[in-house]
Amino acid sequence: MEKLVVGNLKMNILSPLEREQYFKSFKKEMVGKKLSRTEIILCPSPIHLESFFKVLGGKAKIGALNAFWERQGSFTGEVSPAMIKNFGGEYVVVGHSERRRYLHETDEEINLKIIAILKNGLRPILCVGESSQKESSAIIINQLKNCLEGVTGAKMENVVLCYEPVWAISSNKPDHMPTTNEVMSARLLIKKILVAKYGKKITDRVKIIYGGSVDAKNVKEICNESGMDGALVGREALVPYELVKIARIINQ
Ligand code: PGA
Q1: How many angstroms is it from 219 CA to the middle of ligand 1?
Q2: Any idea where the domains of the chain sit in the sequence?
Q3: For residue 34, what pLDDT band results from cuts at 50, 70 and 90?
Q4: Could you report the per-residue pLDDT of 223-246, keeping only the tens digit for each?
Q5: Count of other CB atoms within 10 angstroms of residue 196
Q6: Does the predicted TM-score (pTM) go above 0.90?
Q7: Cα–Cα distance between 62 and 105 in angstroms, integer?
Q8: Is pLDDT of 26 > 90?
Q9: Which ligand 1 atom is the nearest neighbour of the CA of 170?
Q10: Which residues are catalytically annotated?
Q11: Which ligand 1 atom minimizes the distance to the CA of 169?
């Protein structure tokens, strides 16, 4: 698939009833919709991962929103990449700004997670981005350098990168969105860093997506016109009608 639409369901869907409604509505939205070049990846809380895979696994790929770097054992409360894989997950979002902010996740920890995720044959979706518009691009350069430490070229093809300016995430109540040109520049910066480390051939195979307040109205301008390979969608992913609409626009 050329394009990816990742639904970040965050800490939502609180009951079996709510989950049933989500399943029903997602299935209904997918009837007769051919997304020839776009993959939808649904990433729910780990409590829902297995049921999402069982019920929607034929219509979407399933991903997790975090993973620990160890495989098994005395790591109370953690979920390992092997568990995610064995219960149907294929992707894992890592380095999301909300985890960096509330759980103080560091680049070094994110790096350990990425290595473990790749080792288990899963695909990490690494989020990078500046916290405020005042921050320079050095932040992205550093995040990429630290988080991808020790990731070989062969493995890099399985990493998805998400440029997510933290200030543009809907829950941070942005008063405006990045322009197409700004998103395009971030994409070029990421590509430049990857080319320097992995060469052009590998870099061309790495998918780079955009996240932050994506909706059906702005997705064409922000994602398609900036050359992004897809989107990471938070708020709008909770409404399957909107998520599928976004995926159809990305698929164009
Ligand atoms: P948003 O969330 O689409 O609600 O801005 C995106 C995210 O936090 O990944």
Answers
A1: 13
A2: 3-9+19-27+38-251
A3: confident
A4: 999 999 999 999 999 999 999 999
A5: 9
A6: yes
A7: 23
A8: yes
A9: 5
A10: 96, 164
A11: 5
> Which ligand 1 atom sits nearest the alpha carbon of residue 93?
9
Question: How far is ligand 1, taken at its centre, from the CA of residue 10, in Å?
Answer: 9
CA dihedral 216, 248, 190, 90 (to 10 degrees): 120
Contacts of residue 222, defined as CB under 8 A and 6 or more positions apart, other chains included, come to: 177, 178, 180, 183, 210, 214, 228, 231
Q: Which atom of ligand 1 is nearest to the CA of 212?
A: 5
129 within ligand 1 shell (Cβ under 6 A): no
Q: 66-113: per-residue pLDDT in tens?
A: 999 999 999 999 999 999 999 999 999 999 999 999 999 999 999 999
CA–CA dist 140, 128 (Å, integer): 6
pLDDT tens for each residue of 177-223 = 999 999 999 999 999 999 999 999 999 999 999 999 999 999 999 99
CATH class label, 3-9+19-27+38-251: alpha beta
Residue ID of nearest Cα to ligand 1 atom 2: 234
Distance CA 251, CA 237 (A): 16
List the residue whose alpha carbon is closest to atom 1 of ligand 1: 234
Report CA Rg, the chain. Answer: 17
Supply the residue whose CA is at minimum distance from atom 6 of ligand 1: 234
Mutate to test the pocket of ligand 1, among 177, 218, 233, 246 (most ligand atoms within 8 A of CB): 233
CA of 73 to the centre of ligand 1 (A): 32
